[in-house]
Amino acid sequence: MAIDAEAQAISLDLLAESLNLGLGQVIEELSEISNSKIELHVPEVNMLPKTEALSFTSALRDAGKAIFVQQQFSGEISGEALLFFSEEESLNLLNGLLQDNEQALIEFAATEEEMMLDLTNVAVCGVIYALSNLLGIRLNTELPRCEYGHFDDISGSTQLLDNAEDMILFLTISFTVVKKNSRAQLMFFQPKDTLEKLYDRIQKRLSFG
Amino acid sequence: MPPKCLIADDSLYARMVVKDVVRRIYPAAEFHEASSGEQTLSVAEGTGYEFDWYLLDVNMTPPDGVETSKMLMERGVPANKIALVTGNRSFNLMDEANLLGVQYINKAISPEDVDPFMERLRAFFSRG
Amino acid sequence: MDRLYRHIVELVDTGIVVLDGQGCIVTWNQWMERHSGLQEARVQGQKLLDLFPELSNSRIDRAIYKALELNCPSVLSAKLLNVSFPLYREPLSTAKQPERLVQSIQIKPFYTDEDGQYCVISVFDISSSDMRERALRTQSVVLTELVVSLQEKEHELTALFENTQNGILIFDRKGLIHSANRAAVQMFAPIPLEPGSDQQELFELAAPEAMLAESAGAGQLEGQHLYDFFEELSASQFGSDKSDAEIQALIPASGEEREMNCVRNDDSEFPVSVSANAIPMAEDDSRFFIFVRDITEKKRAEAQLNRMARVDGLTGLYNRFSFTEILTSTLKAHQRSGNSLSVFFIDLDRFKGVNDNYGHDAGDDLLRQVAERLRGCCRNSDTISRWAGDEFVILLPEQNHSRSSITVAEKILDAISQPFEVFNMPVFVNCSIGIAQFPDDACDADKLIFCADQAMYQAKADGKGVFRFFTPEMNQRTLARLKTESELRVALAENQFELYYQPQIEVATGKLLGVEALLRWRHPERGIIYPDEFISVAEDCGLICQMGEWVMMQAFETASRWYKREGDPLSMSINLSPKQFMDDGLVYSVRRLLNSVGFPAERIVLEITEGHLMNTQGENLQLLRELKLLGVKIAIDDFGMGYSSLAYLRNLPVDIIKIDRHFLQDASNNAADARIVSAIIDLGHALGLEVVAEGIEHLSQMELLKMKGCDHAQGFYIGKPMSLDDLMLWYTVDREATAAH
To answer: Measured between alpha carbons, how far apart are the two ends of chain A, in Å?
Structure first.
């Protein structure tokens, strides 16, 4: 199914809004967990050909090791959230969450991996819950999985990056710990068919409000 | 005179929802829309600050809703005409709204939440 | 099967708790019993929160709420967990100082049609670092999800493992498969033939019974042997005489997956990742389960990424990484065979212009066409790569007399010089080629490419559109430049620069009018070095702006000191490099210096060569005007050699022209040169400009200038460039001499 430009714009708009609503819901929770003021929002949502999205990842490729969180959801629409962030960004973020008397993290070990899983899971679940609310459907979310290593080594475990002509949804989440002024940009990918189904649902829901 | 309402949100969809709910309260309400803080200020100025209510999202291309509120107030808009309509549920933001004296209203997060959202808006409208 | 499920839950080295929709405990495994001191029978049916009131309002409490009410999973990391379960290493009754377990917790909701909402809580002990790595880095998620899927299907005893994405097979020591879940059955089912395909029809015609038997047996992995499906396993490794440990040694335990190759009944193969565990059941009758994950897609994605990583997306040529790889391996082969090979480094001339004038799409299109033409000039055995931007590198292997690199280079030059058609417009570009050869120039890939690159630079310097072979001198030149560059940095840091001043006099009166500041480098070993030896290096490496700034500062200071001492401002001429001229900070620097030294701006002269002014475009012109607005004067240096058009000169915001020294050298005895000098002077005056003559070495030249009415002059005849002290001395002597006249 082809999506016409206007419908696509509205879908993206609604998606961005629901992402922001979802993230808005979990800000307080994240602040509590981390004992810091957190800012979290999605500046923009784009549909990109995969090849272009891949070129974003070339920055990660150059950055050396990266963390790669994958979380699947299913139900009336299904898809896969993929978040990438560089080792440097994530350490920066985690250091922002540490108490002042704790020693700064300098390498990314299993414990740090788990902290990132914890935080991103809260954010991704918030987003998926908001999406299911907006659309009035039930979505099941799998536990997130995390891989850590060089981009080329880990990106093989997702099918999202296959088939370079396909379009995918691409967005960044700006995640800031205000106290320490540390910030991370998370990149988030969605396959196109999720968006097409989403568009269907939106047509049904546009009377809401 | 039908009430005049300025709705600022970077999401078209969010503006649609807010408009729709306001219309359920005041079917004749007139709307102006803005998709950024900057546009809000210029629309407000262009129409001589004659709005009964300013419903502002928080996350917008800068200035954000909080900054925009401050600027509107500097230009003489009373705080009780301004509401931050947001999905952001952080106590920090609520504190900030309280400090400014502007209303803090949570957006509707689900179809079931539309009616409570309408009540939240109604409470704000009857306050001023 | 219920027993099997129970065994797995008890087997795992993890706490497993299952809660129903009301938050009441359904399952509490032995691990939990062991570490909490609470027996399952005691806690079953109780609300978890009633049992552990300290958990209320904790993250665990909220995560259970999210699982049961919002259908959201949670990962609660040890570091961010405010309250954990009261679980201890040893039983509380025996331990003197109970040691609380460091816990990592996962909570996963699940739903069954019969009984509604549930959730599984997995608790991992990560107290020690090796446990931490194992629990967090490995299969903890798989485990939680397995338990969930077991739980979901608990009441359906026949379909225990359905719905997990992983295939699960239960087998015994003999390798006999006792059960398989749906995922495994699907994985091992023969690949269905396209309905209606020739093969399908043939198959049906030939053996309809076999076909039927096949499809009926598709779900029947039970009764077959595990080793028939795995290339790496064989019948001899299994048997009732084998111990559990021997069987387990064949396949890594969960947490350490191994890649293997599976073979279906139809002999098709697929890659998998497997792990296995023992389920201790009755005596001597252990069962094992093996997880099988199909990694066909993963492998395919890897191959795809691998390809994308090797090829330049725009042109389809190799990228620099794979080129270097290929060159390295080709070099190895050539080292053995003794053949020679060539590397071409090709850079397009005027490509930037295409990009700037017609946009990047046009540039991209052009690059594609260039790539196509390069392919046309090369053989299949040659390797062509896009190195970067508009640079291409080609490897020509197996060189011999029948095909010289000169022929290929000429072919390429010719092909690229033909007009291209970009967006229906003819576009002309050229290329410069540098050639390096193995084994003459270098023996490793990086050095060969570097040599070819240097040769390319030489080709560019020699006028573009040509090719040059690498020569060792290029290398020496490069090394010398690199040496100069590092010495320049030291020189700047250690203040090895000095300014010399050459006097300029008024031709009519002989009075000192001003000086031109000239840079000298007092090298600690080589003595005084003149600018022509180091300015171009400084320009290339970007040090020129810093040096220019230093020169201006010194010159302004000298001028200001002179003014304060003599009471009469000296005009100070300062040379600007074109590179400096492109620096945005120039106007700012000049304004700042003028303000800080307190010196009349109109006595500062900034000199720019004519050649550079000729190339001056809009932006630079604007900069010149801004400088003029500050009140300083602008002089054109080396005037007469650059063939400025009159009209152009009239539009430039300049005040002074300096006649190139070459015209004056012979002017006193060469009538033509004398006429040129005369013409320039007249021209300058006609345009209202001051005219300065440079390189005055004889009295006769001075007389010519006087006769033609030239304004100012400088040269050895008047005074050579000298240090400030010498200048003071010269000035005093000169004034006394004038006074004596």
So the answer is: 27
Q: At what angle do helices C699-708 and C671-686 cross, to 10 degrees?
A: 40
Contact C122, C143 (CB under 8 A): yes
Could you tell me if residue B2 is inside a domain? no
Adjacent-strand bridge partners of A190: A169
CB atoms within 10 A of CB C365: 19
Look at B12 and A10 and tell me if their CB atoms are within 8 Å. Answer: yes
The whole-number pLDDT of residue C197 equals 44
Which tops the pLDDT comparison, A55 or C2? A55
Same domain, C91 and C175: no
Give me the domain span that covers residue A41.
Answer: 5-205
Looking at the fold, whether C533 and C653 belong to one and the same domain comes out as yes
Q: What is the mean pLDDT of residues C558-566?
A: 88
Pairing relationship of beta strands B53-56 and B4-8 according to DSSP bridges: parallel
- Mean pLDDT (whole number) for B91-114: 85
Q: What is the CATH number of the domain that holds C678?
A: 3.20.20.450
Assigned domain for C137 exists: yes
In angstroms, what is the C-alpha Rg of chain A?
17
Tell me whether residues B90 and A38 touch, CB distance under 8 A. yes
**The dihedral formed by the CA atoms of C680, C681, C687 and C692, expressed in degrees to the nearest 10:** 100
Q: Is C310 helix (H, G, I), strand (E, B) or coil?
A: helix
| Domain match, C530 and C679 both | yes
Apex CA B66: angle with CA B60 and CA B71, to 5°? 105
Report the CATH number at residue B122: 3.40.50.2300
The answer to whether the Cα torsion of A59, A62, A66, A72 is positive or negative is positive
Q: Which amino acid is at C494?
A: E
DSSP string, C467-518: EEE--HHHHHHHHHHHHHHHHHHHHHHTT-EEEEEEEEEETTT--EEEEEEE
**CA angle centred on C92, ends C86 and C94, rounded to 5°:** 160
Beta strands in C339-403, from DSSP E residues, in sequence order: 340-349, 383-388, 391-399
Residue after which a domain boundary falls, among C95, C120, C152: C152
Q: Which of A26, A111, A124, A147 should we substitute to test contact with C (largest number of C Cβ atoms within 10 Å)?
A: A111
C585 with C515, same domain: the answer is: yes
Asked whether C34 and C16 are in contact (CB, 8 A), the reply is: no
B3 within some domain: no
Flag whether residue C133 sits within 8 Å of chain A, measured between CB atoms.
Answer: yes
Contacting residues for B122 by C-beta, under 8 A, at least 6 apart: B25
Q: Residue C118: how many CB atoms within 10 A of its CB?
A: 22
Q: Say whether residue A37 is in contact with chain B using an 8 A CB cutoff.
A: yes
Examine residue C191 and state whether it is found in any structural domain, yes or no: yes
Starting at the edge strand found earlier in the chain, the sheet holding C15-20 runs: C25-28, C15-20, C116-125, C103-112, C74-76
- In this prediction, residue C198 carries a pLDDT of 45
A42 touches C: beta carbon within 8 Å: no
Read off the pLDDT of residues C101-120 as tens digits, 9 standing for 90 and up: 888 898 988 887 777 888 88
Residue of chain A nearest B15, judged by CA positions: A209
In a domain, C159, yes or no: no
Domain hosting residue C616, numbered range: 484-730
Question: Which pLDDT tens digit goes with each residue over C27-62?
Answer: 898 888 888 888 988 999 999 999 999 998 899 999
Number of domains in chain B: 1
User: From the CB of residue C320, how many other CB atoms can be counted at a distance below 10 Å?
Assistant: 15
Which token pair is B69?
A: 């509120």
Q: Which residues contact C691 (CB under 8 A, 6 or more apart)?
A: C656, C657, C658, C659, C680, C681, C684, C685, C710, C711, C712
User: Which CATH number is A147's domain given?
Assistant: 3.40.1550.10
Q: Does residue C479 lie in a domain region?
A: no
Q: ipTM of the assembly? A: 0.85
Q: Inform me whether the pLDDT recorded for A17 exceeds 60.
A: yes
C-chain CB neighbours of A155 within 8 Å are 301, 305
Q: Which tens digit of pLDDT belongs to each residue from C253-268?
A: 755 678 889 988 888 8
